[in-house]
Amino acid sequence: MPVQGPETDERFTPRWVFDALGETFDLDPASPVGLDTFVPARTRYTREDDGLVQPWHGFVWLNPPFSASTPWARKFIAHGNGIWLGPAAAAAAWFQSMLRAADRIWLMRDFAFVHPTHKGKYSSMPLAMCALGDRAARALDRAGERVPDAGVIVVRTSFFSLESLTPAEGSSAFPPPEMTGR
C-alpha cells in the first residue's frame, strides 16, 4: 500500500506546472512522505517534519492539503516570498487574505493532479496560484505566457474595501447594505 492512502485529499502538482514556472524553489514545506514529486525544491518538509512548525526560508513552493488550507495560508502570507497553489475558495477568510497579499493571481482551470492512488483525478474545484514577491510574480507571468489556456493572470494594481467606496453624487448608496452586512 502507498504511504498515503486513498482517503487523503493531497494532490501533487504535475511537471508541466514547474516547466511553465521555470523556477527552482528553496523550500517545499508540504512535500509528501516517501514519494518523489516534480517539485524542484532544495529543501522539503513532510507531514513527519510538520512543515507548519519548521522555519521557512527563501523562495517557497506551497501546495498544501486542501482540507487544511487556513494555517498554511497564514504562514505563507507571513513568509511573503513564493508561490502557493490551492483552491480558489472565494468566500473563505483565508483566501480573501491571500488575495489581498498576492502580487499576482493565476485563476486556473482544473487540471489532473498526480498521486499514487488518485492518478489523473481532478480537484473538482476552482484553483488559484498566488504569487508573493517580485520573483514569484515574474514566474506566474512567464507561466501564463507559456500555457495561456491554463487560466487567467490577474495583476493587482490597488486594493480597496467595500467600506472605502463612496456613492457617486445623485446615485443610490453603494455598496448595497446586503453586501456589507449593515
Low-confidence stretches: 170-177
Mean pLDDT: 83
Strand order, largest beta sheet: 3-4-6-5-7
Q: What does the main sheet amount to?
A: 5 strands, mixed
CATH class: Alpha Beta
Work out the count of structural domains.
1
CATH topology: Rossmann fold
Number of helices: 5
The rounded distance between the terminal residues' Cα atoms is 53 Å
Number of strands: 7
% residues in beta strands: 15-25%
Helix and strand pattern: HEEEHEHEEHEH
What does the overall shape look like? globular
Overview features:
Rossmann fold; 182 residues; alpha/beta; five-stranded mixed β-sheet
How would you describe what is shown here?
The chain has 182 residues and is of the alpha/beta class. 24% of the residues lie in helices and 18% in strands. The protein has helices spanning 15-21, 69-79, 93-101, 134-146, 177-180, and strands spanning 25-28, 41-44, 60-62, 82-87, 104-108, 127-132, 151-155. A five-stranded mixed sheet has the order 3-4-6-5-7, sandwiched between helices. Strands 1-2 form a two-stranded parallel ribbon. Helix 2 (69-79) links the parallel strand 3 and strand 4 (82-87). The longest helix is centred in the C-terminal third of the chain and has 13 residues, at 134-146. The radius of gyration is 18 Å and the shape is globular. Residues 170-177 have low confidence and may be disordered.
